[in-house]
Amino acid sequence: MSPNPVQDKLIIKYKGYEDNEPITIMNIVGATLIETTINESMDVSNLSSGLYFLKIRNQVFKFVKE
Prior knowledge:
Structural class: mainly beta
Strand content: over 45%
Largest sheet: 4 strands, antiparallel
Number of helices: 0
């Protein structure tokens, strides 16, 4: 994922994942905010500033929204 921290568009390079793989974005307390499928980029401009987690299959990645 890049850039990290992100302002508007989160770029997701998904080597080893299928196209349209389901992904989830969660906040710091684990509440699901966005459920979608993998794409090259994702608009996160509607998220407030803070720490978030992106889950693909059983892997979780951290990113910061400015």
